[in-house]
Amino acid sequence: MTIRVLVVDDQALVRAGFRTILDSEPGIEVVGEADDGAAAIDAVGRLDPDVVCMDVQMPGVDGLTATRRIVADGGHRPAVLVLTTFNRDDYLFDALEAGASGFLLKNSSPEQLIEAVQVVARGDALLSPDVTRSVIAAAARRTARTPDPDVTARTPEPDVERFRSRTAFPPDRKPNAPTETLAEAGAHPALAALTDREREVLELLALGISNAEIAARLWVGEATVKTHVSNVLQKLGLRDRVHAVVYAYEHGVVRPQG
């Protein structure tokens, strides 16, 4: 099946470049372009794309507002892939909350752009380690500005590598031994619905790592991880794994350890 793509950017040369790259890949077709958010919303209704490659900063209706409206509309909703330069991390975080399914740097390679479109088109979410770092930083700043009494205290400047080191198994770790949690139990009421293993999977999701990497860390099969991820999303009412990352940092599921 051909993946139908709508390219949204206020720069004509950027749109032309994306169109050339995507149209060169068998199984992908750029069905239209839009130069601002309002035109994108209209084009989605007319062209019924599977994926929208969305710029963030545009005159008129910006990419955040357009993403929110596209995702909120009933019926068939395309996946939104945000293409950003990361010069505004708060935009990135807001786009996550608006319902975007993936993020990619504009200086990524053509192969990465093609892969990202394919990933979000099949219903998966794309969150690279670079994006995860930006989410962590943005979430920490927002938390510092708006304290939540139901969330455990967090440090304004988290360190991804420290998070990763906390999830690595010690040399004497047995496959079925219980893992060390990264946050205090009961940080948010909805988390009580998760099993210990599901919470552990959520903590690892928050690092932006793949199902295969999670399976290796937990000594389980990848199919088992997929089941746990689905359970986490369902119990917490989350749209996809990208939004699980947002939830994890907003509600103190993971935080830096001193």
TrEMBL record:
Record GO terms (molecular function): DNA binding
One family name in Pfam for this protein: GerE
Keyword terms, alphabetized: DNA-binding, Phosphoprotein, Transcription, Transcription regulation
Sequence intervals crossing the membrane: none
Response regulatory domain span: 4-121
GO BP: phosphorelay signal transduction system; regulation of DNA-templated transcription
Keyword Signal in record: no
Modified residue annotations for 4-aspartylphosphate: 55
Domain annotation HTH luxR-type: ranges: 187-252
Protein name: Response regulator transcription factor
The species this protein was found in: Agromyces intestinalis
